[in-house]
Design brief:
Elements lengths: L1 H8 L10 H4 L2 H11 L6 E6 L4 E6 L4 E11 L2 E9 L5 H7 L12 E5 L6
Parallel strand pairs: 4-5
Antiparallel strand pairs: 1-2, 2-3, 3-4
């Protein structure tokens, strides 16, 4: 019962913290997660307060599949960085590309493969 009460009154990680750029895309990220879930895996999003990014994770295993950072300046987001353990399929990248239009600076949505640090 106490655990349930804590969950009910705990601040929403998307709402707290200072990363308004990531939280602005919460609805879009949830729609992308729903679309990705059509492939047979149940995927949801959450805000990682420590890394200051959005995570797409597989519900059954709690494994993080994709991390997304949004950078901005003066209240306006200008770049989205999508990282994953392996290169994303073109069809998956297509869900993220409409988040921000490209500018004269270059592509607004970048895709990177996450590297693990060497021990």
């Amino acid at each position: 019962m106490l655990q349930w009460l804590r969950q009910q009154f705990a601040p929403d990680p998307w709402e707290k913290g200072g990363n308004t750029y990531v939280s602005r895309f919460r609805e879009e990220f949830d729609r992308i997660a729903t679309a990705l879930s059509q492939s047979g895996y149940q995927i949801q999003t959450r805000f990682n307060d420590e890394k200051r990014c959005a995570e797409f994770f597989e519900v059954c295993t709690d494994r993080v599949l994709i991390e997304v950072w949004v950078h901005g300046e003066f209240g306006s987001p200008y770049q989205v960085i999508v990282t994953s353990a392996a290169p994303l399929a073109t069809s998956t990248e297509a869900f993220f590309k409409p988040l921000l239009p490209d500018s004269w600076l270059g592509p607004a949505v970048l895709f990177k493969v996450r590297t693990t640090p060497k021990k």
